[in-house]
Design goal:
alpha+beta; 9 helices; globular; binds flavin mononucleotide
């Protein structure tokens, strides 16, 4: 992969690409019977990781729940209206962020070594930065999934404290967990069901605000 897109390679995406990412992409609650491979999950991550974050801190962490047993652990935290669709989704992603993301700054921001201590010395600043950039990275995840032909169903209807206790608590069993999820320093942000959406299941699209209702040029 080239590290820098030359001006000649930068161009407006074709209309059908814009449709897939935005205009015809929908939020899904029902899923086709088509699995999502580990390879595809890696591909989504390896695209979305390039989205920008403050100081390149990359605070988002993703716990990808695929098995019935993992989904059952999530169930008690879900709002009633989110239970069935989550159990039916091929994968449910816990989009989370690491409060101590700055520990990886020596790798991620080698040109700016002072940044690590700036966050380490100011937990409130670190928390705000982690949540803001972790949320952005959640959006990058959705966009990346769509570019690969998948669909998403993001959800905030759940109990964050219950999810954090079950999956990210200091005493959560470490079995099967990777080094990405440091006990006691991960906070859930939102959930995102992931799969190939059933087009028969979507309601008519709700409108969006017009430019003048949401934007102002000074
Ligand atoms: C952060 C976030 C939280 C959401 N929470 C829920 C939820 O808890 N339950 C639900 O059914 N839909 C939830 N939604 C789905 C939104 O209602 C949906 O994305 C929005 O209405 C746009 O739908 P469309 O993409 O089909 O146009 C959430 C979406 C986002 C981005």
């Amino acid at each position: 992969m080239s590290q820098l897109a030359t001006p000649a390679l930068r161009h407006r995406l074709a209309d059908d690409a814009l449709d897939v990412i935005f205009r015809t992409a929908r939020t899904y609650n029902e899923w086709l019977d088509k699995p999502v491979s580990d390879e595809t999950l890696r591909e989504i991550y390896n695209l979305m990781k390039w989205g920008p974050t403050s100081a390149n801190g990359s605070p988002a962490r993703f716990l990808l729940l695929r098995t019935e047993a993992a989904k059952e652990r999530l169930r008690p935290a879900l709002a009633p209206g989110n239970v069935e669709k989550t159990l039916r989704a091929p994968v449910t992603v816990i989009v989370a962020y690491d409060l101590r993301f700055y520990q990886k700054l020596p790798k991620l921001s080698p040109h700016n070594p002072a940044m690590r201590d700036l966050f380490a010395d100011n937990p409130e600043f670190a928390e705000t930065t982690a949540r803001r950039n972790g949320t952005l990275q959640g959006a990058y995840f959705i966009i990346a999934a769509r570019t690969l032909g998948l669909d998403c169903g993001p959800m905030s209807g759940f109990d964050n404290a219950k999810v954090d206790g079950e999956f990210f608590g200091a005493d959560t069993p470490r079995e099967g967990m990777c080094e990405a999820l440091v006990p006691g320093s991960i906070k859930s942000n939102f959930l995102c069901n992931l799969g190939y959406g059933d087009p028969a299941s979507v309601r008519p699209r709700a409108p969006r605000l017009e430019f003048a209702e949401a934007c102002h040029v000074l």
